[in-house]
């Protein structure tokens, strides 16, 4: 256990998000998990997370398995303010998982991206739900 905070904006229905939680726990952390579909988003929260992660609202927009297309958000030139408003109204529009630690904030897709945000490595092998081993990293033959 450590006081190094790991905050995961998590969608439990998402395999990538579940993999990030598993990798974090395998590294010995007990992450703070925010189920953003239930908690929702605020404008300041989204603006801060996107700025810290170096993402635009467009880059953070979940385009598939979301109402993005029906809401007309995929067309070119939709202003960031409109995207943010839609994300507040429909939390599923934010791609996930967004992870924050003292090392930074990232959209952790693929899930092993989270390793760069952690202070220590997993103490055991980590395999994604699809069977791909992500830790330790296998070298090419």
The gist of it:
This protein is α+β, with helices and mostly antiparallel strands and 141 residues long. It is built from 5 helices and 6 strands.
Number of alpha- plus pi-helical segments: 5
Q: What CATH first level would be assigned?
A: Alpha Beta
Write down the domain tally. Answer: 1
Question: In angstroms, what separates the terminal alpha carbons?
Answer: 36 Å
Q: Spell the H/E element sequence.
A: EHEHHHHEEEE
- The CATH architecture name reads 3-Layer(aba) Sandwich
Q: What is the molecular shape?
A: globular
Classified in CATH, the superfamily is Glutaredoxin
Structural class: alpha+beta
Strand order of the largest sheet: 2-1-3-4
Mean pLDDT level:
94
- Biggest beta-sheet profile: 4 strands, mixed
Q: Bin the helical content.
A: 25-40%
How big is the Rg?
A: 16 Å
Uncertain residue segments: none
- CATH fold type: Glutaredoxin
């Amino acid at each position: 256990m450590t006081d190094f905070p790991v905050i995961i904006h998590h969608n439990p229905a998402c395999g990538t998000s579940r993999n990030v939680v598993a990798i974090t726990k395998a590294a010995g952390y007990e992450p703070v998990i925010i189920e953003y579909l239930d908690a929702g988003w605020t404008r300041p929260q989204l603006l801060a997370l996107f700025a810290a992660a170096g993402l635009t609202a467009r880059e953070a927009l979940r385009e598939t398995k979301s109402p993005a297309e029906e809401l007309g958000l995929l067309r070119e030139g939709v202003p960031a303010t409109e995207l943010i408003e839609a994300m507040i109204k429909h939390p599923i529009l934010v791609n996930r998982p967004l992870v924050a630690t003292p090392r930074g904030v990232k959209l952790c897709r693929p899930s092993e991206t989270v390793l760069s945000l952690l202070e220590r490595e997993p103490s055991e092998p980590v395999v994604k739900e699809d069977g791909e081993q992500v830790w330790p990293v296998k070298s090419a033959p």
